[in-house]
Amino acid sequence: MKLIAALLLLVAAPAQAAGLTVPVGETWLFTIKNGEPAQARKVPPSATVPKGQIKVAVRAMLGTAMTVTNNSPVAYTFRAELVSGGKATIARSCTLPSNARPAFEQWEQKADAVRISGFKIADSDGHC
Fold this sequence. Notes:
Elements: H1 2-16, E1 20-23, E2 27-33, E3 36-43, E4 54-59, E5 64-70, E6 76-84, E7 87-91, E8 101-107, E9 113-121
Antiparallel strand pairs: 1-9, 2-3, 2-4, 4-5, 5-8, 6-7, 6-9
């Protein structure tokens, strides 16, 4: 019963919080609108990234790992939060490069999902 309640809470999280919550084991494609993920949809891990879209995959690997590919000409910074047991913890994230170059994030903390939001255009230098 506790597992069902936790899953329902996790499924409801995207509607309650800004951004996109990607559960561990899933891959999603989306665009950016007003700094937030828009037109998000779950896809198979092998999906290609259309022009102007971003693909994010979250996996359980040495804690929690996320691969993000941004197929637009604009680099972004963004906010990442690790979601565990319905609670979110802010996590470090690097600049998301442009032109379909992937970024890999890895956190020691094991999470149920990663919520991404607050996309802003990055300077050319980037950061991590």
